[in-house]
Amino acid sequence: MGRAELDKDPHDVAAMFDGVARRYDLTNTVLTAGQDRRWRRLTREALELRPGQRVLDLAAGTAVSTIELAKSGAWTVAADFSLGMLKAGAQRPVPKVAADALHLPFADGAFDAVTISFGLRNVADTARALAELARVTRPGGRLVVCEFGTPTWTPYRIAYQDVVLRRVLPAIARRVASNPAAYTYLSDSILDWHPQRRLAEIIAGAGWSRVAWRDLAGGAVALHRATRPA
């Protein structure tokens, strides 16, 4: 399933992730050469969580990212719109909720912090999802978005986009993924995604303040951090 056929229809995206759920964690670790573990740790650290705080992990998939957040002592809940992904992580001991990023089933100000990793670009309306995350975050609460970005060094950006995304990623996916065709969409969605500065502007426009970001992997991944105004 390529991007042209998918077009971010929620039902199609959910079905795609249902199809890759069985080997999703393994595929991510292989595709990132193990860097996914480091990115999860950095996301947790950027949230500055404290024991007893309430944290929403949106687009949590199999909840491997939620388990990392729970290491802080915070109460964490995994939310995702793919039932297949949630079922694949059923053995992980954190609360799990089937949820649409555009209509979160939580009360206003329910969380001290919210985060979404590698899922924001899959949402049909980025700004609306960010506004929903702001709604369920208490005043003064924190947001961290871990997402693919645009490499800052031109030679690396060209090699990353032309070689890694268009050739290497699909080749590896054919060997390890449970639904290799879905990774054509993955490549396309990364290539079409916003550069870091533009995403920061969208986050600010959705009601967040003090927006900043940190490049990882030469800008191929970025951590955006923001605060809900008090």
Which stretches are low in confidence, meaning pLDDT under 50 for 5 or more residues running?
Answer: 1-6
Mean pLDDT, all residues = 90
In the sheet with the most strands, the strands line up as 3-2-1-4-5-7-6
Question: Based on DSSP secondary structure assignment, what is the total number of beta strands?
Answer: 7
Which strand-content bin applies to the residues? 15-25%
Q: Rg from C-alpha positions?
A: 16 Å
Q: Which percent bin holds the helix content?
A: 40-55%
**Total helical elements:** 10
Backbone shape: globular
Overall structural class, as computed from helix and strand content, comes to alpha/beta
What does this structure look like?
The chain has 230 residues and is of the alpha/beta class. It is built from ten helices and seven strands. The longest helix is centred in the last third of the chain and has 23 residues, at 154-176.
